[in-house]
Design brief:
CATH class: Alpha Beta
CATH topology: Ribosomal Protein L22, Chain A
Strand content: 25-35%
Number of helices: 10
Helix content: 25-40%
Structural class: alpha+beta
Radius of gyration: 18 Å
Shape: globular
Strand order of the largest sheet: 10-14-13-12-11
Low-confidence stretches: 252-270
Oligomer: single chain
Distance between the termini: 30 Å
Length: 270
């Protein structure tokens, strides 16, 4: 059995630009934290968020919304934001991108992604930009991933022995780029075309983007999911997200310390 997601994790992104440190953090909340998070929803959600969450009757959507809002608030708390989490809102922009409303200080740049496994939020200095995506490695959706590739990408995929996996990676990298650009899926995926993926280890790849050469993407395979982050190409990312968000199975078998820490963090402590 491979690595599995932690219940909760906070990690420094280790961003640097021009030799200078750029404050940045990632916050992961597994769907296993849903029950503990529901218990603290009134203390962690802004009244507008709480009212909206209470209208969500589909459990999957309600869990995704709740974990995502809490993950963002805990990510920016790790950056030093001390304002009570219920006093500001993670709202939605015109293209459904997350924005911070009601902060007393300049809001950090944020990006948020959800999947059935949990929610991942990243945050950094307000003058910077980043995007994130998490998607399951899903062979049943391979035809979807292939269908949104460009002609150039398809030509490379035809010669790729791991074409379905690569198409999955390309999808996540494009999703992360669309979030960095704040355009969402309003832009055709062909416009977000990736250059050839470059392996940087057994579970890590990087790429650039044909039409957005100022950005670079990094993707990992973690716990049977693709995790992708897009940042400016002159910025470096030191964190290995595949290791920061996951743990070897023996440690999961005895989850007492993880659950204790995760419950403490779900109570609002980053």
């Amino acid at each position: 059995m491979g690595r599995t997601f932690l219940d909760a994790a906070t990690a420094d992104l280790q961003l640097r630009r021009g030799g200078e440190l750029v404050s940045g953090t990632a916050r992961w909340l597994s769907s296993r934290m849903a029950a503990a998070s529901r218990d603290r929803a009134a203390a962690l959600l802004h009244p507008t968020e709480l009212a909206h969450w209470q209208t969500l009757t589909v459990p999957r959507r309600a869990t995704s919304y709740l974990l995502g809002r809490i993950a963002v608030k805990q990510a920016i708390a790790a950056l030093g934001v001390t304002q009570p989490p219920a006093s500001f809102e993670v709202a939605s922009g015109v293209f459904r991108h997350p924005i911070l409303s009601g902060l007393h200080a300049d809001p950090p740049a944020i990006s948020l992604t959800h999947c059935d496994a949990g929610a991942l939020a990243v945050a950094c200095d307000p003058g910077h930009v980043l995007g994130v995506d998490v998607e399951p490695l899903d062979p049943t959706r391979a035809h979807v991933f292939h269908s949104v590739t460009s002609l150039t990408e398809r030509a490379r995929l035809r010669a790729d022995p791991n074409a379905d996996r690569t198409a999955n990676l390309l999808w996540s990298l494009k999703e992360a780029l669309s979030k960095a650009l704040r355009c969402g899926l309003t832009t055709p995926f062909e416009v977000l075309e990736c250059t050839e993926l470059q392996p940087e280890g057994p579970q890590r790849w990087t790429c650039h983007f044909t039409n957005f050469s100022q950005y670079r993407g990094t993707a990992w395979i973690a716990a049977d999911h693709v995790v992708a982050v897009v940042i400016p190409k002159r910025t470096t990312l030191g964190l290995a997200l595949d290791l920061a968000l996951t743990v070897e199975p023996p440690a999961v078998a005895d989850r007492s310390l993880t659950v204790t820490r995760s419950h403490h963090e779900a109570n609002g402590t980053p």
